Amino acid sequence: MSDTTNASTPTLVNKALYLSHFTPSMMAPETLETMLVQREPLLQRSLDHVLESLRTGSSHHTLFVGPRGIGKTHLISLLHYRLATTEEAKSKALIAWMREEEWGVTSFFELVLRILRTLDASYPELQVDALTTPLYELPLKEAEKLAESILLQILGTKRLVVLLENLDDLFDQLGEHGQKAWRAFIQNHNNMVLVCTTPAMFAGVSLQKSVFYGFFDIEALKELDFEDVVNLLRKIAVERGDQELAAFIATSEGRARIRAVHHLAEGNPRIYIIFAQFLSAQALDELVPAFMHTLDELTPYYQARMKELPGQQRKIVEYLVNYRGAAPVKQIAKSCFITQQTCSSQLKQLKDKRYVRSIEQGRESYYELCEPLMRLCMEVKKQRGEPISLFVDFLRIWYTTDELTTMLRDPEVICRMDLRYLERALLLAQETNADPKVMAIYKDLSQASVQGRTQEVINLMKELTALNSDTDAAWMRFGLALFQSPHMLHTDVPIEILNSWADAVINLMHWQMDNPNHKSLLLLASEERKLIERFAVAIQQMQKGSAI
């Protein structure tokens, strides 16, 4: 990461604190311990399982499952640190902390060589290098037998704890023959304890016919919830010695700024580590440049994730990136020119990999991206200066409870946004309905909104609602954008618009109770739905006369 800074990227208070975005193993153990949130029970349980295996001779093999960026390497790094500093582990085990990517391991023999190489680096007193040098002069079959003998010799009465990431990739490289050889070695000698990670479940451990089926205790890593995120960012602020930021995070305004990013990051710790690079009270209050900087940093990450996918899955994800809302299988299949059966199968795999999630509506399943940030990063590449940052500013301005209260009581204070967001929202609304009559109304509505003819806006929205078209999503997008117009400055008329919109919001938020098959909200992107839900609660509380 470049050390260059500008007004929109504040410098770190304590530059000694190194926060790696993609390789937590490079960070100091003390920093990793400081940044641990939510997962202390999981980490302690995993440590206990390893120590119990060393103590009793039984074997608890653990597999951490979670998408990239969720914190698997963080856990493995801390587990290694705690094992390496535990007397019982030091006396009863050798620890092989493998590289995050072990490329070129195409057989069990090569895996044994990598384990021996790792042990040589960690335990130079064992002189592993001298023992393995003769291997390279032998025929393959003899070298394989000797390598296993050397490993057993080095272990003696101790057990081998292997910490290994991306097990799915390793299994692909080993193939069925290599997997069987590894499983046979473990079974025959009972001296190996595995703690591994994978981005998602895969055939090598999930299929009943696989040799490692039922072998691992599966630990699925959960996303951080909002309080976890606040705790993480507070810890980073304290570690950096930034008392002002720590105090700001504790305020309702600071929490609101974090919540705006949280709803886009969907609990992925890596996002917050990147975000923490420019955390300060000022940067949190001026979220747009900070967030745009984050999107720029994350774009290569999401591009790499797209490249990991096979062609059909990549096509589906790209469609959902462009579509923005939640879409049914039939619609996705049609748009991607694949059969519904193939589409369902690919969506199931994408769901297992946590690229998408499903929302059940009656007998139909609707799918959307798990991470809104993925869509926003892709939009950055497409927009070329279009107002994607305005949506972030929209979140920044609208997401505190105080601002919600103020907005609902005095619409004037929220008229401070670029008109392009309104125009873009109206355009998106137009794209959701191809009815010529509706399109004509949208055209007039756009002109009336831009020119500030508020009474005409009200009448046009009434016409739109009177049509037998599903215009609820349009109402939502229009409402979210309406108050950004610099022309809506007169208190009396905007309040009437606000009241009409509030009624539409409340009616729509009863959709699940009144009509389980009502799908209007699913036309909106997930972060927009969350905003709508928050507004609905705020409006209802105000109507009841309670404080937000």
From TrEMBL:
Q: What keywords appear on the UniProt entry?
A: DNA-binding
Please provide an example of a Pfam family that matches this protein in its UniProt record: AAA_16
SUPFAM superfamilies referenced in this protein's UniProt entry, alphabetically? P-loop containing nucleoside triphosphate hydrolases (SSF52540), Winged helix' DNA-binding domain (SSF46785)
Domain AAA+ ATPase intervals: 58-270
**Does the entry feature the keyword Coiled coil, yes or no?**
no
Listed InterPro entries: AAA+_ATPase (IPR003593), AAA_16 (IPR041664), ArsR-like_HTH (IPR011991), HTH_ArsR_DNA-bd_dom (IPR001845), P-loop_NTPase (IPR027417), WH-like_DNA-bd_sf (IPR036388), WH_DNA-bd_sf (IPR036390)
Q: Which GO terms describe its molecular function?
A: DNA binding; DNA-binding transcription factor activity
Entry's Gene3D superfamilies? P-loop containing nucleotide triphosphate hydrolases, Winged helix-like DNA-binding domain superfamily/Winged helix DNA-binding domain
Q: Which residues form the HTH arsR-type domain?
A: 304-382
Q: What is this protein called?
A: HTH arsR-type domain-containing protein
Annotated organism of origin: Rhodoferax fermentans
